[in-house]
Design a protein that fits this description.
InterPro entries: Crypto/Photolyase_FAD-like_sf, Crypto/Photolyase_N_sf, DNA_photolyase_N, Photolyase_Class-2, Rossmann-like_a/b/a_fold. This is Deoxyribodipyrimidine photo-lyase. Keywords: Lyase. One of its GO terms (molecular function) is deoxyribodipyrimidine photo-lyase activity. It is a single chain. This protein is of the alpha/beta class and 449 residues long. The protein is globular and about 70 Å long. Among the domains are: 179 residues, 3-Layer(aba) Sandwich (Rossmann fold); 75 residues, DNA Cyclobutane Dipyrimidine Photolyase, subunit A, domain 3 (Orthogonal Bundle), CATH 1.10.579. The chain is built from 18 helices and 9 strands. A 7-stranded mixed sheet has the order 1-7-6-2-3-5-8, sandwiched between helices. Strands 4-9 form a two-stranded parallel sheet. Helix 2 links the parallel strand 2 and strand 3. The protein is 52% helix and 9% strand.
Amino acid sequence: MTLAYLCFGIFWRLRSEKELLANFRFQFIYAEMAESNVATDTQQQSMQLYEKNIHPLNVKPCNKKGMYVLYWVQASPRVKFNVALELACQKANEHQVPVLACYVMHTGKLDNFPPETERRCAFMLDGLRDLEKQLKKERNIDLVVLYGECEILIAKLAENCCELIVDAGYMRYQNKWYDEVKNKIECKFTKVETNVVVPVELVSQKEEFAAHTIRRKIWKYAKQYLIEPECIMVIANNKPLISDNLPIIDLSQSDDIILAKLNVDMTVKKVANIHGGHSEAVKLLENFVSKKLPDYDKLRNIPGLDGQSGLSPYINFGHISTVEIILQVNKSTANKSVKDAFVEQLLVRRELSMNFVHYNSENYDSLKCLPKWATDTLILQAVAKRDYIYTSEQLEKGETHDHYWNACQLELVYEGRMHGYMRMYWGKKVLEWTANVNIAYNWLMQYEI
């Protein structure tokens, strides 16, 4: 009898411990789920500020069988100050899947766009290597870089994703890609404006013709957007699986090996002392804020004194956000008038150009985009007597009678840059020294400053 009671007691205790353990596990899982739900709710609230940045491109549902959220990196290849990345992370947590980031080096011909060059691609590859490193280190997100037809490859990766998110560009070829991709995929597709401070259509519903017409409209919203987005960590940490048959670029390889796979103009050489990426941009920004910003208003328009930031290519390639730059400038001890002068150029003038491209999507790169007064001026100029006519080859080599113009041109050819104050002078002289406006315009369009 005593033995029976003893056995029963042991059995009951073991049963109780199992129930206790099971109950503990249940409570742990429930708490983990509750914590995840709270985190997701908090993340949704943090993204509410950016509601106007987010644009659905189709009405298709999420793919519940998807293995990842696909973040199509395009206009903003960076980790910091990237609303598209934060949205991708938030959506991944909602679906309880990882994020897969993808960049495609397009090898097809782009509409009315010059061929890619070694200089552009090398700078881009620097940025992608930096992005790959920071995504893995700071977010535990994998980046896959592909080469080929962009819209086809993105659609292929989207077959296995819950939803697709892209950081928005404004160029015509980018909008064409979005249209082609949305017609190929069966999941939700969202575009996020993160390459401007204020969403373009929130600023204005029409084309603005000058800084003074758009300035007030930008500042109506700018201050609420001049903050750093909340960093959203992805909960799922499993590695996304992708097909081995995709044309993948190994970023650990040299530029020469990678560029051999691409349709690249190798005659425009990379600049040896200029490297792309967010890390390089931050170094330049810190140097500018500490050493150049205090005298920016005095030195910025003097070409020989290097008083500008040098950040233009990093902004152009999306390696650094204008929000990050403005916040760092505003933190400095420089005079307010100096900071205001810099922000005017970076914010108002840049977002005016975004407005121009957005509302002239079919004609921004042709003479059809010009207002009547400009067209009338060009007609008058067409019949004006020209003291000098130069060939395209002479202009390219900087072989004109004007030493200042030649210096601008050769700086552009060999260093890929030109001082901002000299750009209008450079462009106007090409109009003056060529036989007609079409020749001048086509010649100017081959350059990127």
